[in-house]
């Protein structure tokens, strides 16, 4: 029996050990140590190297991450080398013959990672020369966005030994690098001479500037240099002492020894490049929208400086088998509506026969951009098709009945959110054929009674789709805009139902005001008030005695100004063709927290610090979050 008891006990212990998942090996802590280089071929700094393969051996198994993005080779290769990892070895095989007497630099970025945890080896650069010396000069600096002053990460920075402007578009860079998350860069292994330096968002990955790619350039040539400097190092020795007044223990630092050593400083080491995206947009025709039978829109990818030339086409001009029997020229029976920035053109047709044409053909002459962003004329045949909804017979009858009984739905900005400085506006979804002023009534609440007040209807756009109600409104008062039925009739005969729009104005004490004065006044400066999302809410030309922003919500704001160098009243980005930098922007470095019924005044010294460092930390954090989302 004892024998069987021992067997049972052993069996139970085995079961317990299996159930205890905490027992035994658990894999250990996460490996956070990057791979270590054991051997290089050629060794870093090798001279007279003529072979086309480079190999590096590491102390552990490795893998490569996004080689195309991370690995940069100077001078850049038109035929990218083959970079691969096998076991503990990385190899780089050049697909082009190496240039004579040239220093080559392979910057692996964060491409090399350990196999298990993908911990990257950062900052590893291997250099060798096909000549008898290594070029050793370097250029360092930062790239900042000219429109936000934020650092620009992950863009190409390169130099050209050819000083002609055309080199940026026709020749690959002499040497390249890429900016880090802080916008910083260093170009290594440069030979003595003068260079042009650029930053480039190289979307085409050809190391050449293509129109439409963001860029930055330095107005002057850059000449790298170096300087030997003597640095003093001091070793301190701490000694214990006693403060006779308090009895406390004191630490006294005594100089134990001083020695110097020589360091090499490379210049320029703090170059600033201002990155911008040109205002050039691709001009092309996006398409036709015809969501309703009585109207269609021509949509363009960019604002048009002139309207396209339109000619209505008969169906037979497009297809000889089509009939022209029910055709009418829609242009003779249409109202033209152009969007504010002229990128959408809408035709509202007023003739029933034109409306019933499900297919409308037109010839359109307009301008498009070619590969060099030049505007060139183009002629297209365009078809505006209306597709009837697929409905059952019963649903179709109900649909037609609803169309016949349609009321004109007017809307207004009059609401509880109405601001003291705003104007009452009424909006129509269709062009208006008739507006009866006498059927509009604006009333003010006095005690418990509603009393009519004087007003005028003005500010109507060309198609009367917006009406402005001009009246003297007082703070802390309630109003109602009453619109009787049939006060407005659209071009299709639909009238509005009776409507009431109520609003109440806030007290002046619910608002704050802010006066901004420039310490170094510039008549070209324009001051912008920004919300916490870095969006402009107000803008005004700087005045010598200050700019007043009144009726502001009691919340947080930021300030920014730009120098309007071309005097067009708006911030202008840079342009490579004319070698114009973007207009300089400066931030007020602090957040402004406004309080209701307070008048604030701020002195804006835009020259107090470098503009790249003036962006407030709160907005920097916002920018970082947006970059992480991307």
Structural class: mainly beta
Radius of gyration: 36 Å
Overall geometry comes to extended
**Unreliable spans:** 19-24, 625-630
Residues in helix, %: under 10%
What is the number of strand segments? 43
Strand percentage, roughly? 35-45%
The largest pleated sheet is described as: 5 strands, antiparallel
Based on the structure, what is the oligomeric state of the protein chains? single chain
Q: Mean pLDDT score, rounded?
A: 89
Helical stretch tally:
7
Distance between the termini: 73 Å
Task: Tell me what the structure shows.
The chain has about 625 residues and is mainly beta. It has 7 helices and 43 strands. Strands 37, 38, 40, 41 and 42 form a 5-stranded antiparallel sheet that branches. The protein has a 4-stranded antiparallel sheet with strand order 1-2-6-5, with no helix packed on it. The longest helix is centred in the N-terminal third of the chain and has 18 residues, at about 1-20. It is extended.
């Amino acid at each position: 029996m004892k024998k069987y008891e021992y067997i049972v006990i052993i069996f139970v212990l085995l079961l317990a050990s299996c159930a205890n998942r905490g027992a035994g090996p658990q894999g250990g802590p996460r490996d956070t140590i990057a791979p270590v280089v054991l051997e290089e071929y050629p060794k870093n700094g090798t001279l007279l190297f003529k072979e086309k393969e480079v190999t590096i051996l590491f102390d552990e198994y490795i893998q490569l991450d996004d080689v195309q993005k991370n690995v940069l080779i100077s001078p850049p290769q038109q035929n990218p080398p083959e970079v691969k990892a096998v076991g503990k070895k990385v190899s780089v095989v050049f697909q082009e013959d190496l240039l004579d007497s040239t220093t080559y630099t392979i910057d692996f970025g964060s491409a090399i990672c350990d196999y298990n945890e993908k911990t990257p080896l950062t900052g590893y650069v291997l250099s060798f020369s096909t000549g008898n010396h290594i070029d050793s000069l370097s250029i360092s600096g930062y790239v900042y966005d000219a429109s936000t002053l934020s650092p620009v990460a992950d863009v190409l920075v390169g130099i050209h030994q050819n000083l002609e402007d055309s080199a940026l578009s026709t020749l690959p860079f002499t040497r390249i690098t890429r900016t880090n998350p802080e916008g910083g860069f260093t170009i290594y292994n440069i030979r003595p001479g003068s260079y042009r330096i650029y930053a480039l968002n190289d979307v085409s990955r050809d190391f050449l500037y293509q129109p439409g790619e963001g860029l930055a350039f330095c107005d002057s040539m850059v000449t790298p240099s170096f300087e030997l400097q003597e640095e003093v190092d001091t070793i301190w020795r701490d000694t214990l002492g006693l403060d006779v007044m308090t009895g406390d223990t004191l630490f006294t630092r005594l100089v134990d020894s001083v020695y110097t050593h020589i360091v090499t400083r490379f210049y320029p080491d703090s170059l600033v490049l201002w990155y911008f995206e040109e205002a050039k947009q691709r001009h092309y025709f996006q398409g036709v929208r015809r969501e309703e039978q009585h109207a269609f829109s021509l949509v363009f990818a960019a604002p048009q400086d002139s309207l396209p030339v339109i000619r209505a086409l008969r169906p037979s001009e497009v297809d000889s088998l089509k009939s022209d029997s029910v055709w009418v020229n829609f242009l003779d029976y249409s109202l033209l509506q152009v969007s504010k920035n002229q990128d959408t053109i809408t035709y509202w047709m007023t003739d029933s026969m034109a409306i019933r044409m499900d297919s409308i053909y037109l010839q359109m002459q307009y301008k498009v951009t070619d590969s060099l962003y030049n505007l060139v004329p183009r002629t297209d045949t365009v078809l505006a098709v209306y597709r009837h909804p697929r409905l059952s017979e019963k649903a179709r009858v109900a649909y037609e009945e609803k169309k016949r009984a349609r009321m004109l739905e007017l809307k207004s900005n009059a609401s509880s959110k109405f601001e003291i400085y705003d104007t009452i506006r009424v909006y129509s979804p269709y062009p208006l054929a008739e507006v009866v002023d006498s059927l509009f009534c604006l009333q003010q609440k006095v005690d418990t009674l509603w009393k009519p007040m004087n007003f005028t209807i003005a500010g109507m756009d060309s198609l009367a789709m917006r009406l402005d109600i001009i009246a003297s409104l007082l703070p802390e008062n309630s109003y109602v805009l009453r619109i009787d039925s049939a006060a407005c009739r659209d071009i299709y005969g639909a009238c509005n139902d009776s409507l009431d729009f109520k609003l109440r104005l806030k007290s002046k004490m619910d608002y704050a005001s802010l006066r901004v004065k420039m310490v170094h006044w510039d008549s070209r400066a324009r001051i912008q008030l920004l919300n916490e999302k870095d969006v402009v809410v107000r803008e005004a030309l700087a005045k010598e005695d200050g700019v007043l922003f009144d009726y502001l919500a009691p919340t947080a704001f930021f300030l920014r100004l730009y120098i309007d160098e071309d005097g067009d009243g708006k911030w202008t980005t840079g342009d490579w063709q004319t070698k114009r930098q973007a207009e300089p922007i400066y931030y007020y470095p602090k957040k402004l927290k406004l309080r209701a019924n307070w008048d604030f005044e701020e002195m804006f010294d835009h020259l107090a610090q470098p503009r790249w460092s003036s962006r407030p930390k709160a907005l920097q954090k916002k920018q970082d979050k947006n970059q992480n989302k991307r």
